[in-house]
Amino acid sequence: MAKKSNYYPRTLRRKKWEVQRDKNIKVRDRATLFNLAVGLNGYTVSTGIISKELNGENIIARPLEVDEYMKVGIIMQKNTKLSVYGKVYVEALKEHLKYTEIL
Fold it and tell me: Potential cystine with 82: which of 17, 33, 58, 86 (Cβ 3.0-4.6 Å)?
């Protein structure tokens, strides 16, 4: 049996990332997130890589004025290769990063 990762739960418990609001809603999939954000006039923190073709005009990215940064990467098992879709994702990410300010 594979060892259970503690990475995700630990990151959720970090106090410095918690924002006190009247109501916080946690979701795990993009469709639910965007439906709630539009319907409730909500927001989320993300990489800012948004596709108008995929998500429509109601989902926009605005930069935050904060000192923190987000590190984006991929994790793969040893001796595995990226799928065709994985390669397309990595190339699209690299292309987007050409036009993004890197700290």
Answer: 86
